[in-house]
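From the methods appendix. Each design record in this collection lists the tokenized structure first, followed by the designed amino acid sequence. Records were kept in a plain field format so they could be parsed without special tools. The example shown here is representative of the layout used throughout.

RECORD:
FOLD TOKENS (89 positions):
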């Protein structure tokens, strides 16, 4: 049963972990409220920054210092590479 206020899923006697990945670019106006709202639902939250040129990277760096379950990864390659970046090996 999923408890919307808890980041874990209970299945019988086992507790699972929930992780989320989001890919962003130039989202300085919404990135902080987006992270703060969504991180409470996950055990681990990874944000992939795809070459932001605004203050998105700085905001994410500050949030990662504050929130231990937030991981920020930078990918400055040109183009929208979500399918290539997030595919399984």
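DESIGN:
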């Amino acid at each position: 049963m999923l408890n919307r206020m808890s980041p874990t899923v209970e299945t019988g006697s086992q507790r699972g972990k929930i992780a989320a990945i989001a890919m962003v670019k130039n989202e300085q106006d919404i990135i902080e409220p987006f992270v703060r709202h969504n991180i409470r639902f996950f055990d681990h939250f990874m944000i992939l920054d795809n070459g932001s040129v605004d203050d998105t990277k700085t905001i994410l760096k500050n949030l990662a210092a504050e929130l231990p379950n937030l991981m920020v990864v930078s990918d400055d390659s040109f183009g929208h590479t979500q399918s290539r970046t997030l595919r399984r090996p």
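APPENDIX NOTE: The radius of gyration is 14 Å.
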